[in-house]
Design brief:
heterodimer; A: alpha+beta; two-stranded antiparallel ribbon; B: alpha+beta; four-stranded antiparallel beta sheet; 4 strands
């Protein structure tokens, strides 16, 4: 394992985590407001933090830290401020705890340790230590792993828990479905998914499936379960860790550099290549080792594990650029890839080239 | 921020120990812990139903109205009865499935 690695994936994660913290600060403001209402019970953990003034200071620190993290401004300071605010918020009252907030606190600490400062905007490739990124990836596996293992109980396996949780979110679930044996099947599916994600994100060949499954899983819990905002924040935090699992070896995108519309496409791709994982190689550059006539017909990608062309090559690229990396693995599904291949051929046939 | 090799190794060891030991210890406790163990939507804890008794009436308590954020792992029976007594005029007692609390004690 190299000791240093590009800071880009962790910088992207920093922006997403900072954004999630900003979104969640609204809920924290509401909860602290509720705790000041006379009819609402307080269950203080650290009494000295229960003072209303302290609550406001915590929120101010939270918002400023989150903004600093998004902007990449003095990330050690911003991240430390946000971590302190989250730690204090969790210690104010028993009612302020949330697994997503605990996860946010852990990730912010790791982002500070990872030196996740500005890296996406600069052309210069900033390098950071590998070990904090590995810790972040292990943290993702720990969360998925324990989340799956704790569901191995009869109440969850027979679908009772899901029946009581599904349909309370943005999208209702028909009563008939909730009452049926479908819940038991869904319950087993949820456990298998979480345990699969804990391990498969680490494996090159399984990663596209894991990313697609992880995205679907988080979309489903956010849409079908409650509380929506908290589940959305949790999903953002988990999905923010996925880019760290991507293979850091760039792929070569071999394209027809005689073709102006191909140039437009490759420029579009490279503009979105925040993680610097795409290396465009013109057909005229002999270093790619492919037959130039093949490249005339379709773009090719040379990845560490395979060489692909046409729509499969486009999928390779989309799996490495932002924001498509979380959804592009769906393009590998049989029917989708067939339709995609046809779409690619139509685009290729209609392309305008400066040199025929 | 540059970390020396021993400091980095110490951080990694402490981090992983805590992140693995806390959930394992929490889940093997009796009863199992609900916090810091990544136990999410894995069991359904029935919420206790509190009933407040006054001189003139008996009514059930809307927990959503008197909590900031209702979670299954809150110490409800330790905190809620006394609070209900404080906010309900003329309250004599609060009862729930497995217990009761006298507001005049």
């Amino acid at each position: 394992m190299p000791e240093l690695i590009s800071a880009r994936p962790v910088a992207l994660m920093r922006i997403i985590v900072g954004g999630a913290a900003l979104i969640r600060s609204i809920g924290a403001f509401e909860t602290l407001g509720r705790l000041r209402e006379p009819e609402v019970v307080v269950m203080p953990i650290a009494r000295w933090l229960s003072d209303p003034g302290t609550g406001l200071a915590v929120l101010a620190l939270w918002v400023l830290g989150a903004i600093g993290l998004v902007l990449g401004w003095r990330t050690t300071l911003s991240g430390s401020a946000l971590a302190a605010a989250l730690g204090a918020y969790l210690a104010i009252d028993h009612q302020t705890y949330g697994n997503h907030l605990y996860l946010m606190l852990l990730l912010v600490i790791l982002l500070v340790v990872a030196d996740s400062g500005a890296a996406l905007g600069s052309e210069e490739e900033r390098q950071v230590a590998t070990w904090p990124m590995t810790l972040i990836k292990i943290q993702a596996s720990i969360v998925y792993g324990f989340a799956g293992l704790t569901k191995l109980n009869s109440e969850f396996l027979d679908g009772t828990v899901l029946a009581g949780s599904l349909g309370k979110g943005l999208i209702p679930v028909p009563e008939a479905l909730v009452a049926s044996s479908t819940m038991g099947i869904l319950a087993i599916g949820a456990i298998v998914t979480e345990l699969f994600l804990a391990t498969a994100l680490w494996r090159d060949r399984l990663r596209p499936t894991a990313i697609a499954l992880g995205f679907s899983f988080h979309a489903a819990i956010t849409l079908f379960m409650a509380p929506t905002v908290e589940l959305f924040v949790f999903s953002l935090l988990m999905l923010s860790m996925y880019p760290l699992f991507l293979d850091r070896r760039p792929i070569a995108a071999v394209w027809d550099d005689d073709c102006s519309s191909c140039r437009d496409w490759i420029e579009r791709f490279t503009r979105s290549d925040m993680l610097r994982l795409i290396e465009p190689v013109g057909k005229s550059d002999p270093s790619h080792g492919l037959d130039p006539h093949d490249v005339d017909h379709a773009m090719h990608t040379i990845t560490p594990i395979s060489t692909n062309q046409a729509f499969a090559a486009t999928t390779d690229i989309l799996e490495r650029i932002v924001p498509t990396l979380w959804v592009a693995p769906f393009l590998r599904l049989p029917l989708v890839s067939t339709v995609g291949e046809r779409w690619y051929r139509r685009q290729a046939d209609r392309r305008s080239c400066s040199i025929a | 921020m540059r970390w020396s090799r021993p400091a980095a190794i110490a951080f990694i060891v402490v981090w992983l120990t805590v992140q693995l030991a806390v959930p394992i210890a929490g889940l093997t406790n009796d009863p199992p812990a609900e916090r810091f163990v990544w136990k999410m939507f894995s069991t359904s804890t029935p919420r206790p139903e509190f009933v407040v008794h006054t001189d003139s009436r008996t009514e059930s308590v809307d927990l959503d109205a008197i909590t900031a954020r209702l979670r299954a792992d809150l110490p409800l029976t330790e905190t809620i009865p006394e609070h209900i007594c404080q906010i309900t005029s003329g309250a004599i007692s609060v009862t729930w499935e497995n217990g009761s609390f006298s507001c005049r004690s």
